[in-house]
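Input sequence (286 aa), recorded before submission:
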Amino acid sequence: MRTKSLKILFLLLICCGLNAQAQKFEIKKNPICLPDTAEFRYVSQNLTSVTWKYPADATIISSTADGTGFQRVTFSTPQSKTIIATAIVNGFQHIDTLIVNVSQLFESYVNRTIEFHPTATYVLNMSASINNPLSIAPHWYTWTINGQSTSLPQDVSIHSHIFNDEGDHIVRLNVRDAGGCTVEMDTTVTTVKLFEAPNVFTPNNDGVNDNFIVKSTGDIPFSIEIYDRSGIIVYKPNLTVTQLVWDGRNSAGIVVKPGVYYYVITPEDTSIEPLKGFVHVFHEEK
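Predicted structure, token format:
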């Protein structure tokens, strides 16, 4: 009787031991980003067969010859997916479940705000947000301006940049979510000088370079003050303009002496820094 009991116990141990071998139902990458392919594997010794159960939006791309062990699948919609694998191992049935998070991210999902403030140093303020609930958080934002990239901390999208020169600048935003989805967008920002003034003029009435002309974009009215080397104001029109022509005469109507003069152009918009500079006046003094 004891021998028979030991034999039954031995058979049970063999049976249960074989049945208890490690099975592994896994996906190569989770979460995934549409339209990427999901790769599922069922790994076990003495695997006889696997029956896969997918959501209705799944399409099988490829699998092992007998339909067991490995399958590549695509999904048509983003959301959490439940995948069930029913495996036969050593004659016993094993049911395993995997939850797969499927993400999607398009340019239309990204709200961008790019504010350009054309000050003396051109300030660009940028931010972005995601309006797609099916894009898997968190998100990472990288701004690239003129080839120089700034990667921000997780879920931080606000960034500022100062341009020190005029011209066309490519501003690129790259967004990546936790599902591995990425989207990239380009914007061109053009910086121009608000005000431009010459550094020399010759008020001698010869028809060539007779006037000191301050040019502007016409967007911001400004006023101007011109000083001699002693700090005395020689010219200060009582008006605000978008373009100015000075013929070199002071408030008394007399052409100023040859020399170096200092000017301050003050924009009407107080958030914009004044433009300061020097101008050389050349002419034969009478």
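Checked by second reader. Residues 2-19 form the longest helix (18 residues).
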